[in-house]
Amino acid sequence: MAMDIETIVKTAIANQKMIDVDSIALETSLQDLGVTSLDAITIVYEVEEICDIEVPNDELESLRSVQDIVAGVHSLLNKKAGA
To answer: In the chain, which stretches have pLDDT less than 70?
Structure first.
C-alpha cells in the first residue's frame, strides 16, 4: 500500500487543530500552526497508527516543522522496510 506521508501528516495536523489541510505547507513551523506539545503527541499517535510505526518519545522534542515529521516518518518506514 503506497502512502503519501505528507498528506497523512498534514491531515493529522489539520484534524487536531481544526484547520484547512491546504493551509499547511511543509516548511510551516509547528509553532506557527499553534501546535502544542500535547497536540504533537496526538498528531504523531495518529500518524503512527496509520503508518504502523512507533516514533521514539525523545524524537518528539526535536520536531519543529511539518517537514520534520514527514522526514521522520519516511526514515522510520525505510528502517522498517529494511532499506
So the answer is: 1-3, 83
